[in-house]
Amino acid sequence: MSNVDPQELSKFGELAHRWWDRNSEFRPLHDMNPLRLEWIDTLAGLAGKRVLDIGCGGGILSEAMAGRAEHVTGIDLATKALGVARLHAMESGVENIEYREVAAETLAAEAPHRFDLVTCMEMLEHVPDPASVVRACAELVRPGGWVFFSTLNRNAKSFLFGIVGAEYLLRLLPKGTHEYARFIRPSELAAWCRAAGLDLATTRGMEYNPLTRRFSLSDDCSVNYLLACRLRP
Hints:
This protein is α/β, with parallel strands linked by helices and 233 residues long. The protein has a single domain, classed as Vaccinia Virus protein VP39 (Rossmann fold, 3-Layer(aba) Sandwich). It has helices at 6-14, 27-44, 60-66, 79-92, 104-110, 130-140, 156-169, 186-195; strands at 50-54, 71-76, 97-101, 115-121, 141-152, 198-209, 214-218, 224-231. The protein has an 8-stranded mixed beta sheet with strand order 3-2-1-4-5-8-6-7. The longest helix has 18 residues, at 27-44. It is globular, with a radius of gyration of 16 Å. It starts with 5 loop residues before the first helix and ends with a strand. 43% of the residues are buried. The model has no long low-confidence stretch (mean pLDDT 92).
């Protein structure tokens, strides 16, 4: 429980009731979800997999993956967001999903190498020690299994697009959603992965078109990017 920022939990907790409103502050997550889902499924194949979604929030990605996987476990430390996730899954009739209020590091000690596939999307930039979460991901996935991350690069362009543009000009996100100092360069994330025993498979950028409200994959990782890796056998 030490690797958590109470202010971050409070910030997202206050917005929890709006998590499934596609026109709310969480609209970007809804807009990018189909792209993330297809990217994960194409690389790793969700069918028949036991999946863990770390930092699941209100369950947008967790519930989408549950439509294709054998079982999904979503974990978070934001109590209100988990309550929203459980309620939405119940109302949607999704039975192969479980939500738990537990830290990734705690679950790694409790259930090592239990999952075929682990996702940690838009979460690393919100914790004090992201490398600790990366290590937990490696401890949670089975040998040969897949781990997926998405986060924000740290450079002048990402500050301009990810904070000034998204939070202040386009107002896609609430002001203060991100702290620039916590953005993570791909080289830093890749180094943490290698140190944890994860082999990098691919890195892709995500670009957003505000006119069409669509995200697309690209080779430009200067702002939002996705990273896929596998645990060494």
